[in-house]
């Protein structure tokens, strides 16, 4: 009989069969859940990325300090009005967390090719240590570190591959 909760040493519950598995068996290349959910590419990508809540609050803080249209500078014209046209901060944060690559991210949010290429150029600049580009986007000196750190976390988990 499966209990409602999993033990701390097997905290991951398979959604379909209710099996509890250890974290070490997540994304290990061998499915442990009946439907293979523990090897799902979105789940495995998200496992390497910052938590959605952290990403959402980071995006929210940029909007709070720069105004509702600020993220247009990163994500293009659909990112105005505090990301509403893209489905809101939470949806963008989830897409950043689950999208394996920048192409997947663009597809998830239906970004225009030109916006996607702009976003790619921002990431490339960060990867090459060119903070001048971030400054030209109006990112303040006291935010550069945070923005760079955030973008690097995505790059280091294969976002530009």
UniProtKB/TrEMBL annotation:
Highest taxon above the source species: Eukaryota
Annotated keywords: Disulfide bond
Organism (species): Euphydryas editha
Ribosomal protein in keyword set: no
Protein name stated in the entry: IDLSRF-like peptide
SMART domains to which the protein is assigned, alphabetical: LDLa
UniProt cross-references to CDD domains, sorted A to Z: LDLa
A family per Pfam: Ldl_recept_a
Disulfide bond in keyword set: yes
Gene3D superfamilies: Low-density Lipoprotein Receptor
